[in-house]
Write the structure tokens for this entry.
Amino acid sequence: MMSLTKWAGTTALFLFGAAGLFAQSAPQGIPIDDPTVIRKCGGCHQRDSSGMMRRLSYMRTSPEVWEQAIKRMIRINGLTATPAEIRDVLKYLSANNGLAPEEMKSGFWEVEHRTVGYQEDYVPAPVLQKTCNTCHNIGRVLSQRRTKDDYDKLINMHLGLFPSAMNILKPAKAKAVPVDMAAQRMITNAAGGIQFEQPRATPAGDAKFPAESAVDWLAANQPLITPEWTSWKAAMKTPKLVGTWLLTGEELSKGKIFGKMTITQGAAEDQFTTAVEMTYATTGNTVKTTGRSIVYTGYNWRGRESTTPNAAPALTAAATPTEWREAMMVSRDGNSIDGRFFWSSFGELGIDVHLSRMGSEPTALGTDISGLQSPSKATVKIFGANLGGLKATDVDFGKGITVSKVVSATPTLATVEVDVAKGLAVGYRDLVLGKSTAVGAFAVYDKIGYIEVGPDAQISRLGGLKYPKNYAQYEALAWAAGPDGKLHTDDDVALGPVQAQWTLEEFFSTPDDDDTKFVGNIDDSGFFTPNVEGPNQQRKKQANNFGVNNFGDVWVAASYQAPDGTKFKAKSYLVVTVPDYTMYDQPEVAQ
């Protein structure tokens, strides 16, 4: 029998060895040294002598995911914190455990609230579609970096909070069936007779669970420490953004937008106040907003803009936004900002935005037209900065296009008359104004070849009673044949949106469903408004005569007549489905 002393010594040796092995295999982490984070989070996420805090030190993600994690701690784990403390924690974690711009880019569309074509198109591995993407927007997954151990803990957290996820992450494996117990199967042989086939035994399920395969992929492709993050962490600083910025944008169906954003310093180095003035090129309507913003991780711009009283008008025929939210990325050199303004209430509606610093030289941002026909005479509006006193000789539309007259010129808008020669090559042209060039500002074409409806497919959601509606915006785009002279080829030239007539047409998938009567309606700007959710007693499709919901699928059709009388028509697919009943974010916590 081993003596107590010998047993204690052996045990100590074993524990020492195990500790040594553990230390050698311990995952690399990120130290946490912020007093507020340690005070508010340290009760559950214990911090060791090297500054590592459980879970927190082993993940990096976007400000949005950190914010949702904080809300979850409040909602489920009883965290108490003031709004100021929450802001401090969020800012620190976004900087200390954030993402490099290169890492954020792949999932930034989720932050911008883009809803069209960003699911299967962006899933990098099939195993993620069968696991994470079953419930989550895949952008959420692409904007996280963790150690393998923490990915495993993330799976366990899902199984604990959402037990039904077991069917997705770790479904039951098939048991082995001996050959003599396998059921026979009746088949028809080549001669037409009937025979019994003895199937092979079913092998025991020894393949990895879907969750295990997903963790393996994520650990290999989205690890905690990357060269991109190491480089960015060393160079990270708050950008110097105070000044006037020129704005170019585009909104679905409404076309080009030009204007400026004035940025002034806020209460802290990374906080700013803003004033925006932007004009819709085709209508001349101007919208003015004021707002506030913050920059996380040295480049992640997040802001809110509210329309000022009596601001011009609606962005769609159906509604006027009172507030935009901004999600943009500041370039590494600090001279440009790119992203999206989207409606606070309806993220599916928004504006693609590019900002560049304004200088003292005349600058061309773009024109109100998307195409000039060869030959023709046209009046063109040039949007930009420092355009006062512009002369015809200052403007260059390229070979074969002559500026005959400057009708008017203000600092931000010049109107000119142009003569377009006959037989010009079809293609995109630059607008040159002194040292400034608006690349691809317009196209030269001979005739419209066809129109397309964009996007080519969308999802809209019923709502308006207990759940918010999800709208859908369409546009009709004109195209011309490119240099090869053939339509529907890669070199075709886009001529911008045209004013079309819009209708809904039946998509024949279920007999006598009459979807066009119930799913909603589309207005003359291509803006689709879905019907309300819930059973409709006017729509009875079942034998028991109960009313059914207003869901369905339809064609969205656009008809357009060109100036020369040629008629065009195109369609896009629209699915109108039930409301989005699940909200992973909890907005009431932030109120």
Notes: The first helix runs from residue 4 to 25. The mean pLDDT is 87. The chain is about 20% helix and 35% strand.
